[in-house]
Amino acid sequence: MIFDPKHKILSYEEAGAKAAELRKKEEKIIMMSGSFDLPHITHVGFFNNVKKNGGALFIALGTDEQIRLLKGPTRPIIPQEARASMLAALEIVDFVIIADEPMQMPSKIHFEKLATIIKPDVFALNDDDSAIEDKRVFAEKHGAKFVIVERFLMPFNDKDTTYLINTSNIIKRIKEN
């Protein structure tokens, strides 16, 4: 049997309904955001660490346009629909919402309306996010506990522990080979 993750990719309206349903069961709503271009093992480690806060994990996925704005004209590598499907296929990810809102700069917040709709209990991000303070204010504004999760780091191999797996290093490695 083939697993089809499409039921985990939600519109804003569906996300609001799902969050309300979970809240009735007294489950926490965890919200996080990102581009997740070239999903890889350190993303999975990050999701695991976020999920330790308990509750359903809602990912506000950046659009192709937002990623180009933040990372340049050659990104994303993988289109938003494919990235959403790959994330949704992960058991640890409960729901993915393509957060198609105007990007607020420099905070990189592109999910204000979504947060208003799902009302997260927890807002989580990596410890290397360049907009930590802006996102702390965002979480407080929405009544969410603000959680900074240490970046999950994994080397490419045992011999070179300085070359860590992340999207930029994967792209660099492909270009070198």
Which key features would you list for this structure?
five-stranded parallel sheet, Rossmann fold, single chain, alpha/beta, 7 helices, 177 residues
Question: What's the pLDDT, averaged over the residues?
Answer: 88
- Give the oligomer, counting copies of the same chain as homo and different chains as hetero: single chain
Order the strands across the largest sheet as they lie in space.
3-2-1-4-5
The gross shape turns out to be globular
Assign a percent range to the helix content: 25-40%
Structural class comes to alpha/beta
How far the N terminus sits from the C terminus, by CA atoms, comes to 36 Å
Reported for the largest beta sheet, the result is: 5 strands, parallel
CATH class: Alpha Beta
Instruction: Identify the CATH homologous superfamily.
Output: HUPs
Total beta strand runs: 5
Q: What's the CATH topology label?
A: Rossmann fold
Describe the structure.
With 177 residues, this protein is an alpha/beta fold. It has one domain: HUPs (Rossmann fold, 3-Layer(aba) Sandwich). Helix content is 38%, strand content 15%. It has seven helices and five strands; from the N terminus they run αβαβααβαβαβα. The chain is globular. 32% of the residues are buried.
Write the layout of secondary structure elements.
Layout lengths: L11 H13 L4 E6 L6 H11 L4 E6 L2 H8 L8 H9 L6 E4 L13 H7 L3 E5 L5 H10 L3 E5 L17 H10 L1
Parallel strand pairs: 1-2, 1-4, 2-3, 4-5
